[in-house]
Design a protein that fits this description.
Mean pLDDT: 78
Shape: globular
Low-confidence stretches: 139-164
Strand content: 25-35%
CATH topology: Yope Regulator, Chain: A
CATH architecture: 2-Layer Sandwich
Distance between the termini: 22 Å
Organism: Breoghania corrubedonensis
Helix content: 25-40%
GO biological process, one term: protein secretion by the type III secretion system
Structural class: alpha+beta
Protein name: Tir chaperone family protein CesT
Largest sheet: 6 strands, antiparallel
Order of helices and strands: HEEEHEEHHE
Number of domains: 1
């Protein structure tokens, strides 16, 4: 992604959130802290994609446990597909079993920062769901509970605390 497109999108998003000026580093990754959780925003593979992601953790080195973890990740992807714009991915990590990420993609041409805010929320929600189902061997992936979870918008809703 062209650095100027990435920086302009991030600056506009920060302005939308009333967070002030974002701080960029040379790695083209910027971190948004939401309720003490770090959400990474980084350029995608083309000039029109922004990646929103959270690192969930390392897969287990034990083959049988890792298979169960991967099965849960796959089931979660199926469960989330109709309800969220996120997915879970597993990437190789230098000879280790792999790292799981909660990830979403935003088209920078949209200029719809409510959609980007919703995507950040969805990535956080996916991250939290993943951490629970992977940490607890007995926690099944329940399609109805995951797919039916939505963002609260009523006056009694929980609020996200956004920090640059």
């Amino acid at each position: 992604m062209d650095r100027s497109v990435f920086e302009r999108t991030i600056r506009d998003f920060w302005s939308h959130l009333a967070l002030g000026e974002p701080v960029f580093d040379e790695d083209d990754v910027i971190v948004l802290e939401v309720d003490d959780l770090d959400v990474a925003l980084k350029p995608g593979d083309d000039d029109e994609t922004l990646v929103v992601e959270m690192r969930v953790g390392q897969l287990c080195e034990n083959d049988s446990v890792r298979r169960v973890e991967l099965e849960k990740v796959l089931k979660l992807n199926f469960a989330l597909s109709p309800a969220r714009d996120t997915l879970t991915v597993c990437e190789r990590d230098a000879g280790k079993p792999g790292v799981i990420f909660a990830r979403g993609f935003y088209r920078t041409t949209r200029h719809d920062f409510e959609k980007l805010s919703d995507l950040v929320y969805d990535v956080i929600s996916t991250f939290e769901t993943l951490r629970v189902i992977i940490a607890d061997d007995n926690a099944p992936v329940q399609f109805g509970n995951i797919a039916g979870r939505t963002r609260e918008t009523s006056a009694g809703a929980d609020f996200l605390i956004l920090k640059p």
